[in-house]
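Before a computer can learn anything about folding, someone has to put a protein's shape into writing. The outcome of that step, for a single protein, is printed below:
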Amino acid sequence: MAATRVRTTESAILATGEFGYPVGHIGHLTEAQASALDDFKKLCAEKGLYKPASAGALGTHDDTTLLRFLRARRFVVQDAFKQFSDTEQWRAANKIGFLYENIDVKDYEETRRLYPQWTGRRDKRGIPVYVFEVAPLNNKTMAAYAKSAVSTTISTSKSSGTQTTPARLLRLFALYENLTTFIMPLCSALRDRPNPDTPISQSNNIVDISGVGLKQFWNLRSHMQDASTLATAHYPETLDRIFVIGAPSFFPTVWGWIKRWFDPITTSKIFILSTGDAYRTLETFIDPCNIPKKYGGQLLYEYGMPPILDPAEEAHITWAGSKVHSNGEWPQGPMKWEPGEDGTLVAIAVGSVKGKERREVVATLNPNDKEQGFNGQT
C-alpha cells in the first residue's frame, strides 16, 4: 500500500480529533463549551427530553452523555439538539432500554461473538480497548446470524412504539448499551489513570482485517454500512480511535466506501497501520501488557475470549457467589451498574433466560474515591 494512503505516525494520531480525550470532556471544557452545555440542558429540558438530577434521584441523562452529542456537533447547540432528539425518538421507537434489559442471553452472546469485544484492558488514559476480527464474518456465519436475529423482537414491551430498526441490527445496539452502561462506568470509576475526575465515554478499537478478501468486504458492505450509520447517529463520540491492522493491498478501494459511512470527525479517528508499524504505534498508546500477543504485546488474549481484567480492575471488584472471574468465569449476557451503599457500584446481570427475566447481583465495585458518584455524577 502506498505510504500516502497510510497514517501511522504517532504525531498524526495524537493530532486527530478536535475533542480528543480529555478535551471537550468534563473538567476540560472551555468557557464557551461550558456555556453551550448549560444552553443544551435548558433546551432539552424545555422540550421535555431532559430532567436534571435532584436530591436522591439521578437525572435522565448525565453530563457525560450530553457532552457526547455536543462534541459530535462541535458544540453547536441546535445541531446537537437535533441529533439528541432524533436519538431519543429512535430509542423510544425501538425500545432500546427494554431490549437491553430483556434480550435473551444466548442471543446476546451470539451477537457479542460477531462484533468488537472488550479485552478487559485499557489504554494509557484508562479508555477500554476492544478487538474486532473481521475474517470470521463469512457468508455462512452472517446468514445464520440473520436467520437467528429475526426472532429478536421487542413487541412484548409494555411501552408504546413502532420498531424502526431491522432485527439483525437490534442485537448490535444491546452491545452499545453494554459499552455505555457497564464498561464505561467501570473504567470511569477507577482512579489509576490520568484525569481521574473525567469520566470515560469512549473506546479504542483494534480492527483486524487480515485474511479478508475483496469479495468478503463486498458481501459485508451493506450490513456494516447500516450498523456504522446507526451507531454514528445514535451513539456519537463513543469512539476514540480505530487502529486497522492487516490491510490488504486493495484496501484503499474498500476505504473509499467505508469513509462515506462516517462523519468527518469519526473518519479522522481511523488509522490504517502497516504491518511494520502496528506494534510500535499501539505501544505508544497502550502498555505492552494490555496489547494482545497476536499484535506484539504480552496479553494472552484471543478474539472470542471473555475479558481479562487488569490488576486494578480486579483489585476493586468483588465477584458474587460462583461468579469468580479469577477462575476463568465471566458472567454471560448483558450487565449494568447501579449505585450501591457507601459509594459502591453494584453489577446487575440482566436479560432473560428461557423467556424468564433475570436480575442477579454478580459483583460489587469499590472505587478508590468514595466522593465520585455513579457514572461521573457528583
